[in-house]
């Protein structure tokens, strides 16, 4: 088979396939055939004019396939076909050499343009393909340029598939600078998604909120968001371990940031109050919910719940001590003010 590659070039191989799926299957067939050649440990390579040592056959095919797919995406207008092409492009990117990916920033722009497609599946595959680009460090900053547009899709889209793909991409991206105003407007929508009955979306929202809660500029806005007390219903033993673990981590991060006084938490809306009031206010039921999941079958969840309960109790104890000391200081100051008057009168 090695002898065939001298004349059977990658260009000729690709000319056999016309569709995105066929190209990808062709690549997999040839790559698997080479890797499974019997009684041979030699890595077959194609000599390349710009690389004296040659390039692995799998990498050459993958690059050619990706180039063909991107060109097909450029000219294809049908939503269903674009979706299939994007899915194949994402596969190629994941298989691509991490050190020397062949895609360019223009290719990212081409994929990002599909975010405006009317076909929902095309949007989902475009988001997934951008997430594949993020796995290659040289493309991360270019994808991050679209962070505002991607974040805006959280609030604009009502399709759960699109919302999930958006959240997964946001969790894969570092938060860019100077984005806080847009994040402040998006946080209430994130908390709304958290109360949807969708495990995958809830998990991604929790992970994103943990990241945002660690940003000092955003923490007060997150704590002052209006939520319903039913948000605590997420803390129950019927929830999967991953969801509870992320929820407890979020509570720990939020509680760690509650060292400064917050503005009035009550909202004029009925049955609503601030997240701070629901979680850490005087009438909060958080402690009861934590005691319930303290007997969760997963040991990691038990430990997290125990640590949070201890932190909450220590916070209350420290507040009581501070109040007592303040009261004692006030009493001592009043006594010191009275004593000179008594002495002078006597």
Please characterize this protein's 3D structure.
With 346 residues, this protein is mainly alpha-helical. The chain has 2 domains: 1-176, Serine Threonine Protein Phosphatase 5, Tetratricopeptide repeat; 178-261 and 271-322, Leucine-rich Repeat Variant (Alpha Horseshoe), CATH 1.25.10.10. 65% of the residues lie in helices and 4% in strands. It contains 16 helices and 4 strands. It has helices at 10-16, 20-35, 57-75, 79-95, 105-112, 120-134, 137-144, 147-156, 160-172, 180-194, 199-213, 219-223, 241-256, 275-280, 286-293, 299-345, and strands at residues 45-48, 51-56, 226-227, 273-274. The chain has a two-stranded antiparallel ribbon. A hairpin with a 2-residue loop joins strand 1 and strand 2. The longest helix has 47 residues, at 299-345. The termini are far apart. 28% of the residues are buried. The model is unreliable at 1-18, 36-52 and 262-271 (pLDDT under 50). Residues 107-255 form the Armadillo repeat-containing domain. This is Armadillo repeat containing 12. InterPro entries: ARM-like, ARM-rpt_dom, ARM-type_fold, Armc12.
Structural class: mainly alpha
Low-confidence stretches: 1-18, 36-52, 262-271
Strand order of the largest sheet: 1-2
Main sheet record? 2 strands, antiparallel
Helical content class:
55-70%
CATH 2nd-level architecture of the largest domain: Alpha Horseshoe
* Count of individual domains: 2
Would you report the number of β strands? 4
Ends apart, CA distance between termini: 116 Å
Tell me the CATH topology of the largest domain. Answer: Serine Threonine Protein Phosphatase 5, Tetratricopeptide repeat
What is the C-level CATH assignment of the largest domain? Mainly Alpha
Per DSSP, the total helix count is 16
Percentage of residues in DSSP E strands? under 5%
Shape summary: elongated
Q: Rg from C-alpha positions?
A: 29 Å
- SSE string, helices as H and strands as E: HHEEHHHHHHHHHHEHEHHH
